[in-house]
Amino acid sequence: MTRKLLLEHDHIEGIRTYDVYRKNGGYRSVEKALKSMSPDDIVEEVKKSGLRGRGGAGFPTGMKWSFLAKPDGVPRHLLCNADESEPGTFKDRYLMEKIPHLLIEGMIVSSFALGANQSYIYIRGEYMYVLQILEKAIQEAYANGWLGKNILGSGYDLDLAVAPGAGAYICGEETALIESLEGKRGNPRMKPPFPAVKGLWQRPTVVNNVETIAAVVPIVNDGGDEYAKIGIGRSTGTKLISASGNINKPGVYEIELGVSVEEFIYSDTYCGGIKNGKKLKACVPGGSSVPILPHYLVCKTAAGEDRLMTYESLADGGFESGSMLGSGGFIVYDEDQCIVRNTWNFARFYHHESCGQCSPCREGTGWMKKVLYNIESGKGKSEDIDLLWDIQRKIEGNTICPLGDAAAWPVAAAIRHFREEFEWHVKEPVLSQTENYGLVSEKSFVTETV
Amino acid sequence: MSEDAKIKVTIDGKTIEVAPGTTILNAARQIGGEVVPPAMCYYSSLEGSGGKCRTCLVEVSKGSEKDPRPMPKLMVSCSTMVMDGMEVKNTTSERVLEARKGVVEFLLINHPLDCPVCDQAGECHLQDLAFEHGLSKTRYEFKRREFEKVDIGEYIKLHMTRCILCYRCVYTANQLTDSREHGVLKRGDAAEIGTFIEKNLKNDFIGNVIDVCPVGALTDKTFRFRSRVWYTKPVDAHCECTKCSGNAVLWMIGDEISRVTARKDAYGEVKEFICNECRFDKKDKSQWTIEGPRKISRHSVISANHYSKEIPKHTTLLNKA
Amino acid sequence: MEEVKTNIEFPRELLDEVQRVVGMFPEGKQKSALLRVLHIAQAHWGHLSPDIMDYVARLLHIQPIEVYEVATFYSMYDTAQVGKVKLEVCRTGPCMIEGAEKIIAYIESKLGIKEGETTSDGIFTLKAVECLGACGYAPMLQAGEKFHEHLTEEKVDELIEQYRQNPVANYMGLQK
Fold it and tell me: How far apart are CA B99 and CA A117, in angstroms?
């Protein structure tokens, strides 16, 4: 049975309230940190834990924290990225809605570690009801002396507030988030300078995902070494996975990193298998941006090894035959799903969410969407598939922020693994409107595609 | 800056020493010629400009003497600082040429290609860019984006359909005027330059947005459709002005001033911005002291005409009353 | 309907709320409150007209264009009038798999409007929106700040009936 570090108490009646949360061991990490640890001690524990950013990039959190510039007399900030918008991902909402105090506790300990006295949770505007839950919890935390001046008599002051976005996926990119928090359009900034040097109001800033900050609580409570015992290799600890698509039991699961993909999809502890006894066709394991895997590469790697729910195993084979753990937005497709349609759907999403600042993303995302729509609706030409490949290739790596890559990768992976399905759409413009292609055949990965 | 503080950078095999903090693009401009990447959004004097159009992408094949690893991604030369010992490939990199071709295509898929009726034709940076780096035919088979033309003030026409969203005019208004009234509205490929509600841009220096616009999106209404730029003869001239330096270029048709602009350098950049009065109101030769023919930048078709004939120096013009 | 041009001002309790939000940020950084103040304004007035945005600009001591730029960037803001209740159906990825398009089509036929339109009685606006973070509970729609998940035609019937009887949706904890 999986050890739960974040969702251990999510089933307890009233855990959203301060009293119940506190009774169940809440805010212990703040006591421990403020009474017996220095900020550097906490950074050290986080480094030891091997915790990696849970928002999608998987960058080691302790290392990110140690990059924070600390010029004299300049305030620094910790921002929590609660702009969860990656299609397939809904874990942060679950965590904040169920156990808001866990995030607040994590914010206090993390802010202390970074020497931040004014921290913010930036939450997507559509989660307005969650914002209200958080604000209520923050009020409770202030009332009980966990926020404000001289917390627990330690001399440490912290103010925490929640700020909403207003409908923009791009604000999940950390510099766009900062711009938005400054009351501007969510245009990502050019890097360098990185937020660690010049972030919110040009001050040194760390931006961490909700789940990352929550994970600091058990790390401080039990020690980084204990946390690192869970998982495999550089994938330590537990991870929240948002499971959706054609499965029997969609929902948010806390897994120990290292569970096999097969167990995750088919066991009753997790997804409970494919719905209606259908066959697995494909899987997007880490949110819409990561490469889609065809059925034969979901549970096994190209080398024939068991695919595990870890950063490394999901990426095994690179983009040729692997994918990414990403944000843990795990979307499962059964044999009746159309990959062309799904790719078009994602392309439409990225087109809708492009900020429009740089030309490859602004122009390229809309172009891909239109070409994909043609293929999907039976108006495609065989050259369109190569054209799509070329457009995504010219976007990838050439944009200001990762949204360009996020838009390009799903298209590239769909063509790489499901080219025969795309070709069938072009060849069978009428039939493809009513029938589905079914499973694609296995192929070898020795040769470059296109 | 002392000599020994300089750092060395090599671009397409040509080495130069520059001051620390210099961008790759500016280092390339110091070398000059073929090694200079094109830039559609960067503008030296406008803080914060650059990074958006992606035409100036280059390959950094060696990071620095200290850390010689190549940079994995192509870098925007306008915003990437030179490091000592850095090696950069511009036109010698296949990757760069390929990516740039892509950027040009992206910039053109929604561009109206209405050069025959566009006032900017002949001095349009997008025209140059497409000519030098583009494909000869389009692969885009969809309806192009269109916007209504709008007047943003007495003197300026905004033709958003031609805009490439370089943001230069926004930075200009931010940095040159005391209150910005236009900006970027909406997002993605629906983004547009505008005022949201109909507004006249009246600031004394707002006319400079015309000069910084790399395409024909912002044009001078006092000049619109009066002539093609290559039929006009540019002369350097100055006038006494209390608001600006008064240093300008007069674009003459015969003895008439058809248009007044600021002076641009070889990369199309204005170093001394001029006020609206000089630009729009002083259309009488007697208001100016003519210095002589303007040396034309490579960004103008006029340079192809090898125009060099001296303007007859009229004594009354030289000795301003 | 003509917009009332004068008397654009928040009532006392909302001015207090604006003050509270501005107070979350350091002195001189009041522009950071803009997104939230726009949410409050939209909850109060229904949409963000130029007059309302100019008022917000004055409240926060910023240029009106800075407000227009923001209001037109974020998808939750409406700069034109919409219905009292916005039915925003998620159409992305997992929701599409679970039948979001059928739900949209069903609402369209039930209300006699197309996606993006408002019913003639001004009660409902139907919008198809991108991922709302409810993929495991698809298909779903958001009305005001409330998420309605695991939608079926029957559930949609109930919802529409409920909002038709009482066309009130909560935004920002405020009623519109």
Answer: 44
Give all chains having 3 or more CB-to-CB distances under 8 Å with chain A. B, C
Q: Do B181 and C63 touch (CB under 8 A)?
A: yes
Query: A-chain residues within 8 Å CB-CB of B165?
Result: 356-357, 359, 362
Tokens 């930036």 correspond to: A122
Contact B52 A400 (CB under 8 A): yes
Average pLDDT per block of 10 residues along chain B, 321 residues long? 78 97 97 95 95 97 96 97 97 96 95 89 90 84 93 90 96 89 96 88 90 95 80 93 94 92 93 94 94 74 47 36 30
Domain boundaries, given as residue ranges, for chain B? 3-93, 115-220, 230-318
Q: Are B176 and B244 in contact (CB under 8 A)?
A: no
Cβ(A286)–Cβ(A235) below 8 Å? no
**Partner C, chain A 290-329, Cβ-Cβ below 8 Å:** 329
Has domain B115-220 been given CATH number 3.40.50.2300? no
Per CATH, which fold does A232-334 belong to?
Ubiquitin-like (UB roll) (3.10.20)
Residues 278-317 (B) with a CB less than 8 A from some CB of A: none
- Find, in chain B, the residue whose alpha carbon is nearest to that of A403: B188
Chain C interface, best mutation among B152, B181, B185, by max C CB count within 10 A: B185
Contact B54, B41 (CB under 8 A): no
CA-closest candidate to residue A47, choices A28, A30, A64:
A64
- CB distance B188 to A355 below 8 Å: yes
| CA–CA dist A109, A38 (Å, integer) | 11
Closest in A87, A118, A127 to C93, CB measured: A87
Q: What dotted CATH number matches A18-229?
A: 3.40.50.11540
Residue B75 tokens, joined: 């870098």
| B181 touches C: beta carbon within 8 Å | yes
CA of B298 vs chain C CAs: smallest distance (Å): 36
User: CA gyration radius for chain C?
Assistant: 17
CATH architecture of the domain covering B3-93: Roll (3.10)
Query: Residue C1 has which token pair?
Result: 């309907």
Burial A230-260 (b: 16+ CB within 10 A, else e): bbbeebbbbbbbbbbbbbbebbbbbbbbbbb
Residues 230-259 of B with CB under 8 A from A: none
- CATH pick for C12-73 out of 1.10.3470, 3.40.50, 1.10.287, 1.10.10: 1.10.10
CA distance B153 to B199: 7
Q: Give the strand pairing for B75-76 and B57-62.
A: antiparallel
Please name the member of A185, A357, A366 whose beta carbon is closest to the beta carbon of B52.
A357
C173 vs A89, A118, A132: nearest CB: A132
* A446 — pLDDT class (breaks 50, 70, 90): very low
Using the beta-carbon criterion (under 8 Å), do B197 and C50 form an inter-chain contact? yes
Q: Is C78 at the interface with chain A, CB within 8 A?
A: no
Q: Which of B106, B107, B30, B39 is nearest to B79 (CA)?
A: B39
Neighbours of chain B (3+ CB pairs under 8 A): A, C
How far is C150 from A198, CA to CA, in rounded Å? 43
Give dist(CA B201, CA B44) in Å, integer: 24
Could you give the 3-state DSSP secondary structure of residue A281?
A: strand
Strand B256-261 to A280-284 pairing: unpaired
CATH architecture, domain C85-175: 3-Layer(aba) Sandwich (3.40)
Query: Given an 8 Å threshold on Cβ–Cβ distance, is B179 in contact with C63?
Result: yes
Highest CATH level, class, for A339-434:
mainly alpha
User: Would you state the pLDDT for residue A449?
Assistant: 46
CA-closest candidate to residue B242, choices B202, B277, B286: B277
Instruction: Report the alpha-carbon distance of residue C150 to residue C138 in Å, rounded.
Output: 5
Contact A185 C73 (CB under 8 A): yes
Average pLDDT, chain A: 96
